[in-house]
Design brief:
40% of the residues lie in helices and 9% in strands. It has 216 residues and is an alpha/beta fold.
């Protein structure tokens, strides 16, 4: 996440959407008082700035608007340009699974991914519950339940949607670096059976409807 009071924007980083690449591009043009939450170089250097701030939730890379209340006021959230990245849910799920399998930290999702094949991971109630509870809009919704997202940048239409952000910012962000690439095949469709396609369709129904995603 990046909060820029100078440029009046909030970048919300939904997981496994290519957000680290965009964060690095924004970081390269950061203002000196921009607040960065995450593991990029400048975010690590500026971490001390929010150390003692009392907020409604955890201040971390994938913080939501609800989490940062106290660091940012509701009035600022409503006035600032709020944007995030979104991604085809079937593609995102494959990326997420392979990313988890490469991690070494202690978390139930990591344990599940390392002990299951992709089908088992998707069939697990914990996986399905997690994705049902966190559609993309949940990341840009404030504590009053208001969706404050001004721009949802579709990873599959990055060139087109990034132009909208660049126009708002007044400068180019390209070329974007490509960070956190997961170790998997390029065609996510190969991981799926009809059953698994349907599981993702049900878990991510609101994202699929809002952004017009289809399998393949």
């Amino acid at each position: 996440m990046i909060i820029s009071h100078g440029r009046r924007y909030i970048f919300v980083h939904a997981p496994k959407t290519g957000g680290t690449s965009l964060a690095l591009a924004l970081e390269a043009r950061a203002m000196k008082d921009d607040i960065m939450l995450g593991d990029t170089p400048k975010a690590i250097k500026r971490r001390h700035r929010v150390k003692d701030v009392q907020t409604s939730g955890r201040l971390w890379k994938h913080a939501t608007l609800r989490d940062i209340e106290g660091l940012v006021s509701r009035a600022e959230m409503a006035e600032y340009f709020v944007f995030t990245l979104v991604r085809n849910p079937w593609d995102r799920m494959v990326s997420y699974y392979h990313w988890l399998r490469a991690q070494g930290f202690d978390h139930p999702a990591v344990t599940l991914a390392k002990s299951s094949d992709f089908a088992g991971f998707l069939r697990a109630p914990t996986t399905q519950t997690s994705f049902r509870a966190t559609p993309f809009t949940s990341y840009v919704t404030d504590a009053e339940g208001q969706d404050l997202g001004n721009l949802f940048i579709r990873l599959e239409h990055l060139e087109e949607d990034l132009s909208v952000l660049e126009q708002h910012l007044g400068f180019s962000l390209r070329p974007l670096p490509h960070e956190n690439r997961s170790d998997r095949g390029s065609d996510y469709r190969a991981a799926y059976t009809d059953e698994l396609v349907d599981i993702v369709a049900k878990c991510c129904a609101s994202d699929i409807k809002r952004f017009g995603y289809k399998f393949g």
